[in-house]
Each structure stands twice: as C-alpha cells, then as structure tokens.
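Hi,

Apologies if this is the wrong queue. I'm a grad student, and the batch job for Peptidase S1 domain-containing protein from Daphnia pulex produced an output file that my downstream script rejects. I'm not sure whether the problem is my script or the file. Here is the sequence I used:
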Amino acid sequence: MKLRTAISIFLCCLLHNALAGENVINDQERILGGTKAREGEFPFIVSITTNGEHLCAGFIYNPRFIVTTVTCVQNLSPSQVSVVVGQLSLISTEQYERRYQVVSIIPHENYDANLGLNNLAVIETSSSMAFTAGHVDFICYNEDNTTFPEATVMGWGATQEGGLPSIDLLKASVTISAECVVYGSEEYQPNYMICAGSDTVSPCHYDEGSPLVQDNIVVGVASRNTGCKELFLPTLYTRLSSYYAWLNRNAGQQPPACSAT
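Support response: The file is valid. Your script probably expects a header line. Output copied below for reference.
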C-alpha cells in the first residue's frame, strides 16, 4: 500500500509539473510555509484515507472515535474509508503506525455547505485504537486561549495551490484573531468558528479536518479558506467548544483525563 502511494504521488507530481511547464519542486520548496513534524510530536493526528490514499486529517477523540469535518468525508461510505494513526510519512511504514477500518461516519445534521457552518463529523473505528504514550494518543478539546493567541496546525496538505498531499507531516504556527474581515459576517460566525492565519503559511488542499492546537489542547479543525496561493489569507476552523453536546451525543465522553482541562 505504501509503495502504491509513493508511486502514485511521484507519477502525479511529474504529470502535474509537466503540464504546468515547471521543474519538479525540491524538498526545501515542498515544506515552504511549514516544517516537518518530529516523531511523537503530535500523537493524536490521524490520516483519513480512501482507497489507501490520504484524503484529509482528523484527531483522536477517544479510543473509538476520530473528529474531522463534513467536507472531509461527505459522500463517502464507511467501507470506503480507513484511518491511519502513528504516522509521519505517507510512503514509509513507522513502528507505531496502525490502520483501522471504519464502521460509521456521522456528519453534523445541520451542516450548511454555503456558509460552512456546523462543518463537523465523527468517524467510528471498527475496534478500539491502541494507545502508546508519545506515539498514539487522544487529545482533549476546549476553548481557545485568547490571551495567548498563538496556535499550531498540522497535516499532510498540499504545499502549493493545486498540489498533491505532502509526503511528510508538516506543522505551522498561526495566530488566532477575533477580527476576520476577509470573510463576510455570514461566512465568519465567531460563536461557531475560529479565524486563524499567518503571512507566511496556510493550510491547503488535503488539510480539511486538521487540528488547531494551543498548549496541547485542540480548539478547532480546519474547515475552509480561500486557497493557499502566495497571498495567504486566514483559515476558518470549526470551534469545537461550541459542539460539546453534539460531540458527547455522537461520540461519547473523552477519557477521564480531559475532565481536568
């Protein structure tokens, strides 16, 4: 499966660049706007795949559920999806990497595709995920910290507009802002969304569902933006703290350790 993924990404990259009349981008260019994550740095991150290929991201909520976005999994049946934990590279198998089949996908019933509102979904795995401290683990969710607005987003998203997934898990620092003037008042609804961005980095294609983290607490999942061209504009994240009742009803409680956060 990893070999097929590597060949697929390589061939598609060659085709994409040949059609664009460009040279194949080097490694430094591939991580422009982000840096490679270290092993064990984000043990909660999950690659959501279809046909063995990375589609989008999510995070481990508890031993049986992954949190992501509706836009990540819409129009997919559970049999078409699997989730991979403990992974850094999409083309090499790591020691703690495990793949889990999916038995149910639960999108938010009031998702609004026009406004991007309620862009939240949970995925149930066929068996409990085995946790290994520092490598595969859950992360607690809570309100964002407005006093210290710095946050980190991570994922395997494309490293250029219209590109393919990054082979390596990348991370980037962004700043949460209460002002989000690039979006209209209907598009940005602060009670249900978080606006975060940077002048030098941006989530991109295949980053849907990527977690936004502050101080080892996940506060949002990447919902949408205007693209990842040279002029980076803020990304809207689904505000997880606004969906406590929905998450509890559809995915149950988080592990007891989260009660103290």
